[in-house]
Design brief:
Blueprint (H helix, E strand, L loop, with lengths): L7 H19 L3 E4 L2 H4 L3 E9 L7 E11 H4 L12 E4 L6 E3 L6 E3 L9 E2 H6 L18 E5 L14 E3 L5 H4 L10 H9 L6 H13 L22 H4 L15 E3 L11 E8 L5 E8 L1
Antiparallel strand pairs: 1-2, 2-3, 3-4, 3-7, 5-6, 8-9, 8-12, 10-11, 11-12
Bound molecules: calcium ion (4 copies).
Length: 288
């Protein structure tokens, strides 16, 4: 984008046009996880995107679409004389693209794209078969892992243990949540109507939030008093409507199962770095 200006008014208009273009582009931000291996084989495509809003956390989505490679099929789909092109299709088999104005992922022929799945929806909507509960005592719980300095050498390396990011491990996790030397826990206590919270209680509330519970009652359906910080009412332990948050600072990585491994064939892993919130790497495993 280039603007030529001769006076103050034209310069002001040019700046407004440039900033408007930035805003328009930012509403359509996507990051796509595709490696060269996936492009040369017919497989899947995972696309993360977010929508900036005036809410505390921006709404993020993680879509799975179908990646189709001319190279793999040997068919020159677009009849341009080579078999080097790749396409992304939705669940209906329609080619998709991103609307340059709204940022929405749409069918090229028109209408919204129909993804194979969208991870945020799978984590929020109990009526879907892909649903995973934010409550760790449920059989269909989300599997979230992090790493602690288990050998206490003040470094994170291959010797440290992966542990589940659960209330059960709150005592081990609390020192990794950055709760000391700041007013976060006292602010959280005030927000929730408590006079104070212990560090462990504060850590447990964060763990519940990260797992996807509506601890802050963002959907506003609470009528019960939140009397005991260790026992939130159902209206605060239910899944949030928007669990993923923005994916701007995350790097979705798609790891396909080995074609030789029957046991792993039903499993794929999507890894999200929630470094914009807590500075910790969190992994999630969901069934295909
Ligand atoms: Ca072609
Ligand atoms: Ca081509
Ligand atoms: Ca260590
Ligand atoms: Ca609620």
């Amino acid at each position: 984008m280039f603007f030529s200006t001769n006076n103050a008014t034209e310069l002001a208009n040019a700046l407004i046009a440039a900033l408007s273009d930035i805003i328009r582009r930012s509403t359509g931000f996507t990051s796509t996880a595709q490696s060269s291996l996936q492009v040369t084989a017919q497989g899947d495509s995972v696309i993360g995107r977010f929508l900036p809003t005036n809410l505390p956390i921006w709404d993020g989505q993680l879509y799975k679409f179908i990646l189709y490679s001319e190279f793999n099929s040997g068919v020159d789909i677009n009849s341009d004389g080579d078999t080097k092109d790749a396409y992304v299709f939705d669940k209906d088999g329609d080619e998709i693209e991103q609307d340059p104005t709204t940022g929405a992922i749409v069918k090229k022929e028109g209408g919204l794209a129909n993804p194979v799945w969208e991870a945020g929806e799978c984590l929020s909507n109990p009526s879907l078969s892909c649903y995973r509960s934010p409550n760790e005592d449920q059989s269909n719980k989300r599997n979230i892992y992090t790493v602690i300095d288990s050998d206490s050498n003040a470094k994170f390396n291959i010797n440290d243990q992966v542990i589940e990011f659960t209330l059960l491990n709150a005592t081990l996790l609390q020192d990794y949540l950055g709760l000391e030397g700041n007013s976060f826990c006292s602010q959280l206590a005030t927000t929730l109507g408590f006079t104070s919270l212990t560090k462990l209680q504060c850590a447990k509330l964060i763990i519940r939030f990260v797992r996807g519970q509506d601890i802050l009652d963002w959907n506003g359906n609470c009528v019960e008093i939140f009397a005991d910080p260790d026992n939130p009412p159902a209206c605060r332990s239910e899944p949030r409507d928007n669990i993923l948050g923005d994916i701007f600072h995350a790097q979705p990585i798609q790891i396909e199962p080995s074609r030789l491994s029957h046991q792993l064939r039903r499993i794929y892993v999507v890894r999200l770095y929630l470094i914009n919130v807590y500075g910790h790497c969190i992994q999630r495993v969901m069934p295909r």
